[in-house]
Amino acid sequence: METSVDRIDGLEELFHHKLAQLYYTEHELVEALDEMAINTTNDRMAEGFADHRDETRTQVQRLEDVFAALDRPAERREDPVLDALEAERATLEDAIEDDDVLDMAYLNAGMMTERIEMTAYEGLTTMANHLEYTDEIRKPLESNYEEEQSAYRELSAMETAADMKSLWDRLTPS
Predict the structure, then answer these.
(1) Across residues 140-159, what is the average pLDDT?
(2) pTM of the model
(3) CA angle, corner 71, sides to 65 and 72, nearest 5?
(4) Which segments of 70-161 does DSSP mark as H helices, in order?
(5) What's a Pfam family in this record (predicted)?
(6) pLDDT by residue (tens digit) across 79-137?
(7) Is the separation of the CB atoms in 15 and 124 below 8 Å?
(8) Which domains does the chain have, with CATH numbers?
(9) Exposed/middle/buried for 80, CB within 10 Å: 0-12, 13-18, 19+?
């Protein structure tokens, strides 16, 4: 796995760099989603994290298909943005003893991650369009983007869900 960045001299090289970062991100998120699904005490969140973990495995396969369509080996390149989010999640897990507060930290982490992933897929799709890549490359990126949007909507809906009301009531001062 590459960590350093040499010189990027063009849009195609930037596309490959960002694709490798997103491939790394999706791989790492499979494990993170599994951990959050296990550690959350909220059944709805646990199910949502587990479902998205399974979706993320499919997203990894789609990215491998993109690499294949580009006739390049699938490559992971560390992503400092994801690494920082994961470090923050680990710090909060160690610092929070209240299960409900930890669930809120997970909800927030999930929403932040989905927004970052959506932005990454938007950027890759924009570059793919300008590079005039075929649907074989664009469609998997678009499918992953749509799934990230759906996951974000589901997490956002949890903020106001009836089963979360008692949690919010307990956590917020009167």
Answers:
(1) 92
(2) 0.89
(3) 85
(4) 80-95, 99-130, 135-158
(5) DUF892
(6) 999 999 999 999 999 999 998 889 889 999 999 999 999 999 999 999 999 999 999 99
(7) yes
(8) 11-171 (1.20.1260.10)
(9) exposed
